[in-house]
């Protein structure tokens, strides 16, 4: 386990994160999101979830544009946006999933939870809506 000194800035960031539905959802469901994205997009999906989690931790006040774009990409993966495009790796990953597998329901629940958290955050940051329109 890593221990680090807690600075006043880190404490302020923790206070700012308190109550943020997106950060809370990502923190509570990080492993599930990582597994779902890995199932649907391989290592790229896993790295994307880890990048989002790191950025949410480091974006001290508002969520940065790059983080919103990464979230849009993750939603595209979780909502199967590109699975019908044979040129995209997601098509191959999706083809290997048995529709009767219980993991399908878990991915749907995670996707719904992520969307619900995003809706709450977007109510406070409406300018970010245009960054998520594609997903």
Largest sheet descriptor: none
Give the helix proportion (percent range). 55-70%
Count the DSSP helices: 8
Domain module tally:
1
Strand content: under 5%
Distance between the termini: 37 Å
Structural class designation: mainly alpha
Order of helices and strands: HHHHHHHH
The overall average pLDDT, rounded, is 82
Unreliable stretches covering 5 or more consecutive residues: 1-18
Number of strands: 0
Gross geometry: globular
Rg value: 16 Å
Layout of secondary structure:
Layout: H1 8-17, H2 21-28, H3 30-41, H4 43-58, H5 65-78, H6 89-95, H7 102-124, H8 129-132
Task: Provide a descriptive summary of the structure in words.
The chain has 135 residues and is an all-alpha fold. The protein has one domain. The protein is 70% helix and 0% strand. It is built from eight helices and no strands. It has helices at residues 8-17, 21-28, 30-41, 43-58, 65-78, 89-95, 102-124, 129-132. Helix 3 (30-41) runs antiparallel to helix 4 and helix 4 runs antiparallel to helix 5. The N and C termini lie far apart (37 Å). Mean pLDDT is 82; it is low at 1-18.
